[in-house]
């Protein structure tokens, strides 16, 4: 089965905090498009849209990537602004959705006035923040009292796969977790929000089933395996055995892979 080359996918797992330093920003954009087009990607996005439905019009999608959610929220009647720290992402979003407002900016220094926004959305971005509390302090500044925040991230420890070599799966999973700055963002966002003084916190888990072998490798297993190879915790032989096993299961319709996203919603006290 064809999958993305290892060096590139390792840099994707570990370098989403600085896409523009990569020699291949287009690989990051292609990676996001794979997740975007998956059934699970749609389910996660829709859960976040429901979370901001009742909020006022003006809000922002922080770490908006290639812009899909900004365009959807504009279509749903929101005055949505996309913010991303990567110029390559901003350019990709504007090329796809020229009618949208997308700007380059950092989650740690947002281009908004105090209390300007009614909602703040961020999907799979807190995963890449070593210090989420700092981003939440900035979110508090730009949200108006009573404003809504919704964060959607996986907890990378939730990854399961139908491998018959579970000990390799565990090593691969641990390596993936250590390659990403905030791997448990999905389950940790709630207490970070509580610590930052947000109220009415609710967490909705969304199961991402990746039963299609190629999608599972494209979105999560290849980046995870490459992290393990790069860290030297799995040998080339063990990696090949693990991949062959999953390929064999796939040919017999016995392949399954799952991870859990957590959509965490909260409000700034009125
Ligand atoms: C995994 S992508 C997710 C993109 C998009 N939310 C999605 O779900 O398709 C993470 C995005 O966050 C952006 N990013 C990383 N660090 C950031 C920061 N400090 N401020 C704003 N954006 C950031 C990256 O450039 C990238 O586009």
Automatic annotation (TrEMBL):
SUPFAM superfamilies: S-adenosyl-L-methionine-dependent methyltransferases. Residues 61-151 form the Methyltransferase type domain. Gene3D superfamilies: Vaccinia Virus protein VP39. Keywords: Methyltransferase, Transferase. GO terms for molecular function: methyltransferase activity. CDD domains: AdoMet_MTases. One of its GO terms (biological process) is methylation. The keyword Methyltransferase applies. This is Methyltransferase domain-containing protein. It comes from Lentzea rhizosphaerae.
């Amino acid at each position: 089965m064809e999958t993305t080359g290892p060096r590139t996918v390792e840099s994707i797992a570990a370098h989403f905090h600085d896409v523009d330093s990569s020699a291949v920003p287009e690989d990051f954009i292609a990676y996001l498009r794979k997740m975007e087009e998956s059934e699970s990607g749609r389910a996660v996005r829709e859960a976040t849209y429901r979370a901001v439905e009742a909020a006022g019009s003006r809000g922002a999608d922080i770490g908006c990537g290639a812009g899909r959610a900004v365009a959807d929220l504009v279509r749903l009647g929101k005055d949505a602004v996309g913010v991303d720290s990567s110029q390559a992402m901003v350019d990709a979003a504007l090329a796809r959705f020229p009618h949208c407002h997308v700007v380059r900016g950092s989650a740690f220094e947002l281009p908004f006035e105090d209390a300007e926004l009614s909602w703040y959305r961020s999907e799979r971005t807190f995963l890449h923040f070593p210090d989420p509390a700092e981003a939440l302090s900035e979110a508090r500044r730009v949200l108006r009292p009573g404003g809504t925040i919704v964060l959607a991230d996986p907890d990378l420890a939730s990854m399961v796969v139908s491998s018959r070599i579970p000990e390799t799966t565990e090593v691969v999973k641990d390596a993936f977790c250590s390659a990403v700055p905030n791997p448990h963002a999905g389950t940790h966002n709630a207490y970070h929000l509580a610590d930052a003084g947000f109220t009415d916190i609710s967490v909705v888990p969304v199961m991402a089933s990746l039963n299609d072998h190629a999608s599972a490798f494209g979105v999560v297993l290849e980046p995870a395996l490459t992290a393990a190879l790069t860290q030297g915790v799995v040998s080339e032989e063990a990696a090949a055995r693990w991949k062959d096993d999953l390929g064999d299961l796939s040919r017999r319709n016995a392949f399954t892979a799952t991870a859990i996203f957590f959509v965490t919603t909260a409000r700034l006290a009125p």
